[in-house]
C-alpha cells in the first residue's frame, strides 16, 4: 500500500451547477489512483467554499457526509481564487504529502492528475499543468490570456507559460511556500520562486461543464497588474528609465529654447509649450500611479491582516499552523 497522501484542493465560488457534476469525477480519479497503489487511501478531496452566495456550501456538506474522501472548509466571505487556494493549501500543511490544486468547473483535465502523481514519484517536487492549446477559448480570451503571460514575463516575473493554478506541489514545497507571508498572493509566480525540481504535464483545456466564468477581462487585467506589482519592481525601474529618457529630451528642449531666444524667434510657441506640458504631466501622473500601487501594497503588507479566515469545516480541525484568526 502506498503511503503518499494526496489532497486535491478545489476552490468553489457559486458553483452549485457544476459541483454535483465534477465532484464524482474527482472522486473517481482519486479512487483510481488509490486502487493502482499510487497514493494512500487517506488521500482526500478538499473543497474550499469561497464565500459562495448560492447552495455551494450546502452541497459540499452533503458530499462530505456521504463520502469519507470528501472534505470541505468555508472561508468567512468571498476573498478570491488565490486566497481560497492558499486557505486550502495551508489547511493541509502537515497532513498532505502532495497537494494538487484544480478548478472546480472541469476545465482542467481531471485525468491528468495521475500523470502529475507519476511525475512526483519520478522525483519532481512541483508539477505544472500546462495547457496544450486554447482552441476551446474564444479568440479574444486566447489573445488576452497569452498577452497576460507575455506581459508578466517581460516584467521580470518567472511564470510558466500557459500554466494557471493546476499544479501539484510536494509537502516540502508547501512548507517553504508557507514561509512567504505576503498578503498579496500570486501563487503561479510564487511557486517558481520557491524553486525545487519541477516537471510539466500537458493537457487540453475543456469548456466549463456548467455555470459561468468568474474571470471577465476587468478581473484579468487587475489580476495581471496585481501579479506584476506583487512579484517584481521592474515597473519602478522602467519609470526611472523613462524619467532619464524624458530628462534627455528636455535637455535638448532647453537648448532649443535658448537658441530660439537668442535668435529672437520666441513670440509664437504656444502650441509646442502646451504639448510639452501635457505630455510631461501625463507621464508624471502615470508614474505616480505606478508608485502609488507599490505604496498601497506596502501599506496592506504592514497591516499583516490574516490572509484568510475559515468559518466552518466539515471535519474536526487538525492541528497545524494557519493564518485563521478564529482558532
Ligand atoms: N473561484 C473562487 N473565488 C472567486 C472566483 C473563482 O474560488 O472569487 C474559483 C471558481 O469556483 C473556480 C476557479 O476559482 O473553481 C476558477 O474560476 P473560473 O472558472 O470562474 O475562472 P476561469 O476558468 O474562467 O479563468
Ligand atoms: Mg474555469
Write a brief caption for the model.
With 327 residues, the protein is an alpha/beta fold. It is built from ten helices and eight strands. Uridine-5'-diphosphate binds at residues 11-13, 15, 50, 78, 80-81, 84, 103-105, 107, 213-215.
What pattern of helices and strands is seen along the backbone?
EHEHEHEHEHEHHEHHHE
Q: What fraction of residues sit in β-strands?
A: 5-15%
Largest sheet: 8 strands, mixed
How many helical stretches?
A: 10
Overall SS class: alpha/beta
Shape: elongated
In angstroms, what separates the terminal alpha carbons?
Answer: 35 Å
Number of strands: 8
Low-confidence stretches: none
The ligands found in this model are:
uridine-5'-diphosphate, magnesium ion
Q: How do the strands line up in the largest sheet? A: 7-5-6-4-1-2-3-8
Helix content: 40-55%
- Would you tell me the overall average pLDDT? 84
Instruction: Give the C-alpha Rg.
Output: 25 Å
Detailed description of the structure:
With 327 residues, the protein is an alpha/beta fold. Helix content is 49%, strand content 14%. The protein has 10 helices and 8 strands. It has an 8-stranded mixed β-sheet, with helices on both faces. Strand 1 (6-12), helix 1 and strand 2 (44-49) form a beta-alpha-beta unit. The longest helix is centred in the last third of the chain and has 34 residues, at 270-303. Uridine-5'-diphosphate is lined by residues 11-13, 15, 50, 78, 80-81, 84, 103-105, 107, 213-215.
Amino acid at each position: 500500500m502506498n503511503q503518499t497522501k494526496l489532497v486535491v484542493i478545489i476552490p468553489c465560488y457559486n458553483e452549485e451547477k457544476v459541483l454535483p457534476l465534477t465532484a464524482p469525477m474527482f472522486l473517481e480519479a482519486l479512487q483510481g489512483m488509490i486502487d493502482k497503489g499510487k497514493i494512500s487511501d487517506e488521500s482526500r478531496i478538499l473543497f474550499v467554499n469561497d464565500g459562495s452566495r448560492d447552495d455551494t456550501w450546502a452541497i459540499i456538506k452533503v458530499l462530505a457526509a456521504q463520502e469519507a474522501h470528501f472534505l470541505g472548509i468555508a472561508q468567512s466571505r468571498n476573498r478570491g481564487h488565490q486566497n481560497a487556494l492558499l486557505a486550502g493549501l495551508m489547511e493541509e500543511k502537515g497532513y498532505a504529502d502532495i497537494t494538487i490544486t484544480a478548478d472546480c468547473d472541469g476545465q482542467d483535465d481531471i485525468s491528468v492528475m495521475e500523470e502529475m502523481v507519476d511525475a512526483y514519484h519520478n522525483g519532481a517536487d512541483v508539477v505544472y499543468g500546462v495547457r496544450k492549446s486554447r482552441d476551446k477559448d474564444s479568440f479574444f480570451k486566447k489573445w488576452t490570456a497569452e498577452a497576460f503571460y507575455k506581459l508578466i514575463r517581460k516584467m521580470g516575473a518567472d511564470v510558466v507559460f500557459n500554466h494557471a493554478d493546476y499544479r501539484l506541489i510536494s509537502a516540502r514545497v508547501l512548507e517553504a511556500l508557507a514561509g512567504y507571508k505576503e498578503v498579496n498572493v500570486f501563487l503561479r509566480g510564487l511557486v517558481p520562486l520557491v524553486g525545487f525540481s519541477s516537471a510539466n504535464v500537458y493537457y487540453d483545456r475543456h469548456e466549463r461543464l456548467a455555470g459561468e466564468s468568474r474571470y471577465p477581462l476587468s478581473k484579468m487585467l487587475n489580476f495581471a497588474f496585481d501579479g506584476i506589482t506583487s512579484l517584481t519592481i521592474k515597473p519602478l525601474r522602467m519609470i526611472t528609465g523613462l524619467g532619464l529618457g524624458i530628462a534627455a529630451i528636455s535637455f535638448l528642449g532647453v537648448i532649443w529654447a535658448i537658441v530660439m531666444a537668442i535668435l529672437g524667434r520666441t513670440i509664437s510657441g504656444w502650441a509646442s509649450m502646451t504639448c510639452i506640458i501635457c505630455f510631461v504631466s501625463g507621464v508624471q501622473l502615470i508614474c505616480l500611479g505606478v508608485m502609488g500601487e507599490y505604496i498601497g501594497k506596502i501599506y496592506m503588507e504592514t497591516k499583516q491582516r490574516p490572509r484568510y479566515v475559515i468559518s466552518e469545516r466539515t471535519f474536526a480541525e487538525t492541528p497545524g499552523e494557519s493564518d485563521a484568526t478564529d482558532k
